[in-house]
Amino acid sequence: MLRTVIATTAVLGLAAGCAPDPQTPVKIRALVLSGNGQYVPEEVELKTVDDIVGLSGTVADLHGGARIVYDSRDQELTNATTAEAFAAALLKGEGRDVAANYINQDDVLWPADFHTWNMVTAYYNLERAFDYFREVTNIPLTDFKKPVKTYYFPEFVLADIQPGPLKDNALYFSAMESFLVLPFDQLQRAPLSINAGVITHEYSHRIFNLKAYGGSPFPEALISWSTAGGPNPGANILKSFDEGLADLHAYGATCRSKSGCDTRFLSSSFHGPDQGPLADERDLAKTDRCIDDALRDSLRDNSLSQFSGKEYRVGTILASALYQAGEATGQRDILLRSIVAAYNDETTATPGILQLTRRYIGDQSKFTLAVAAGAIITHVTDLRLKEAVCNELMDHLQIPRDQLVGTNNPNLCPPSAAGGTTCPRLGAD
Ligand SMILES: [Zn+2]
């Protein structure tokens, strides 16, 4: 499809470019997933954009050509004493505002080159993710803070991992409070910027940071737990929840799209023999995912760096268990809203994830799966949904029933919650 789009825009590009300054909402063409699995140019509206050429507005501000380098030996980074100084030290090349090109056809803006298609679609996807969190999970407008700086096709180097710039990825980089949409290399069929599910996944990390990490570029619990030496079970659980819930929200947002609910939203970008398995590994509709002894032990005994990669496995088990509870009870959106409410809650009887990490900041072994899952469970008020969530989590994550039910845990699971029989019992600790 993209090949066709590039050809089409090359033809349109022969007409004069323009620098329009329309009022919002702006009628514009973006690449949208159609029912047959192809991305096609479709007329959409951008409701929050103030500058259509620079692609900035209340949701995001796109910025091109930056160079961002993380190198643990970098003295500028070592010397940085504030979050702002650290972010500034990461930015080795400022880059510039993007400049989108359009053709105006009957008051609809058509992107006039490949990057404009890609950038407009990225902004549109960020706006839809923002709409999802505002309208489905009821996050008040003022909680979103400023527009998110979004680095488009930056040179992003993690020098400790590989010397050259990374490709084929999109990420929320909390140290810079920014999204990074990296250049593509292998993922040419649907670059990640046009995959609405991938953009919502990244946006979910931003929301998790704002709420469960208190909006800190360097979340206190995550940093203190992961630098503690020895096993980092609390940090491993936080990372697993952040990843799994990002997939669940990305799925929830697809249900508002024209092409409908999609548990395999990764498959339009990741396909073929090399990348295809990823969409299967993360497919939320798979009903028989189970934590096993080895994964349970890694969660408990690994440092965060040893655990790297396994947060997706635990996260997918969590997300597919929650998915089943939401679908079986017909309460998907209510569950998604309860999950976001669980990120941050000062109420004594129903503490949020942030408050629980603070409670156990001195002993991360107490921030268990039962405690983290308990934050979600206490925020589900409907009894039938609560029971379904409890049963699925006891079953797939093998959280011991006595940690969720009983007089010691009056706000967690009802006595009627008995777990499930999909997953085998784990061996002794
Ligand atoms: Zn992620």
Q: Which helices and strands appear, and what pairs or packs with what?
A:
Elements: H1 2-12, E1 26-33, E2 39-46, E3 49-51, E4 56-57, E5 60-64, E6 67-70, H2 75-79, H3 83-90, E7 91-93, E8 96-97, E9 102-105, E10 108-111, H4 114-135, E11 148-152, E12 155-158, E13 170-173, E14 178-181, H5 196-212, H6 220-226, H7 233-254, H8 272-281, H9 293-301, H10 304-307, H11 310-329, H12 332-341, H13 353-359, H14 369-379, H15 383-396
Parallel strand pairs: 5-11, 6-12, 11-14
Antiparallel strand pairs: 1-2, 3-4, 5-8, 6-7, 9-10, 13-14
Helix pairs in contact: 4-5, 5-7, 6-7, 7-9, 7-11, 7-12, 11-12, 11-15, 12-14
The chain binds zinc ion (ZN).
Q: Label the structural class.
A: alpha/beta
* Largest β-sheet summary: 5 strands, mixed
Strand content: 5-15%
Low-confidence stretches: 1-17
User: Strand order within the widest sheet?
Assistant: 8-5-11-14-13
Q: Which cofactor or ligand species appear?
A: zinc ion
Protein name: Lipoprotein
Name a few traits of the molecule.
429 residues, alpha/beta, 5-stranded mixed beta sheet, 3-stranded mixed beta sheet, 15 helices, 14 strands, binds zinc ion
What does the model show?
The chain is α/β, with parallel strands linked by helices. It has a domain at about 195-429. It contains 15 helices and 14 strands. The protein has helices spanning about 1-10, 75-80, 85-90, 115-135, 195-210, 220-225, 235-255, 270-280, 295-300, 305, 310-330, 330-340, 355-360, 370-380, 385-395, and strands spanning about 25-35, 40-45, 50, 55, 60-65, 65-70, 90-95, 95, 100-105, 110, 150, 155-160, 170-175, 180. The strands form 5 sheets. It has a 5-stranded mixed β-sheet. A 3-stranded mixed β-sheet has the order 7-6-12. A hairpin with a 2-residue loop joins strand 9 and strand 10 (about 110). Helix 11 crosses helix 12. The chain is globular, with a radius of gyration of 22 Å. Mean pLDDT is about 90; it is low at about 1-15. The site of zinc ion has 4 residues, from helix 5 and helix 7. This is Lipoprotein. It comes from Myxococcus stipitatus (strain DSM 14675 / JCM 12634 / Mx s8).
